[in-house]
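Intended use. Records such as the NB-ARC domain-containing disease resistance protein entry shown here are meant for training and evaluating sequence-to-structure methods. They are not intended to support clinical decisions.
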Amino acid sequence: MAVESVLTFAAEGILTKLTDLAAQEFRMAWGFKAELRKLSQSLPILQDFLGDAAEKAKDGGKAVEDWVKKLKDTADEADGVLEEINYEFLRRRVELQNQMGKKVLNLLSASNPILFRQKMAHRIRKISASLAELKNEAAFVGLVAKKKDPTSQRIREDRETNAFIGKDEIIIGRNAVVSDIVTTLTNSNMNQENVSVMAIAGMPGLGKTTLAKSVYNEGAIDEYFNKKLWVCVSNTFNVNSILAAMLELLSGKVATTSQQALLTDLREKLKEKKYLLVLDDVWNEDSEKWERLMSCLSKLNSAPGSKIIVTTRSGKVASITETLPPPKLELLSTDECWSILKHAACSDGSSDIPLGVERIGWEIAKNCEGLPLMAKVLMPPTLCL
């Protein structure tokens, strides 16, 4: 395989595969969360070398070719680990269904889970070590870390979100939080600033996006704000891209133009109007980028009382952005996780569940660790009869 082809595979594949693997943290939580977290933190560092490697692939000699081959090997190993984790997850779900008639079931007791955790943790550590080695070797082969132009980075499709609430996106144990957020956002005493910001921060799977959707679709929000906008930011935080997304939502037209033109059109659409802007899944920890966005938004001549909701996994992002009191997003109780399981498994949540099956459901709920998303993922499809 030519160096260029290998590099293309690596550039388009490894980050997706490794990020998918790191995202298993909320899904599995099988004792290697620390390894997955370390792995996910190393991804941006690797990404910075890909652009320079692409430029030097043709004339960089065997050293660059070997470096790229190691990158591909790491991608293949990550792919194998991801497939094995997914296979084990599905196997345990089948095993769970086969044990429906038993009185007691521990979801994580099947087929030597300790050995599986140790094996996966070891392989993930090896992947992280390979990435660290690639980073150290990059300088020796003449590669330079270069930040990619944010406008050229594509938001991963599987992270794209929208403001619509799906059938499986129910709010359980969060009604009080939703009410508190709506009260804060619509409180006229909070209108001293032209645009105020609330950050919803927390670990993966805690239900930040679902919470934001619930707030976004509240009737009191519709009554208070003249305009509502939902923008999924994800890994790419580019001011012009965010402004263009806002304009597209307001006008229905795709905007690919200068910042000056974007601001001119946005001023026309939002002048003297109160708007709510949700920026979902924000990863940017660069305060200067955030300040540039806020500077642009301050020039729109919108009405006082406009608000921004930022959802993020990062406490640093929250500290950079928020100007309003943050909501307190707690882990759910076992009872609340069980309610989510019932709703996800039974279309209306009211189907009769045999006592023995209910015991199984409670065992599953105990293993959800208070995370709404884990309750949905671990739900066996035959829970309701």
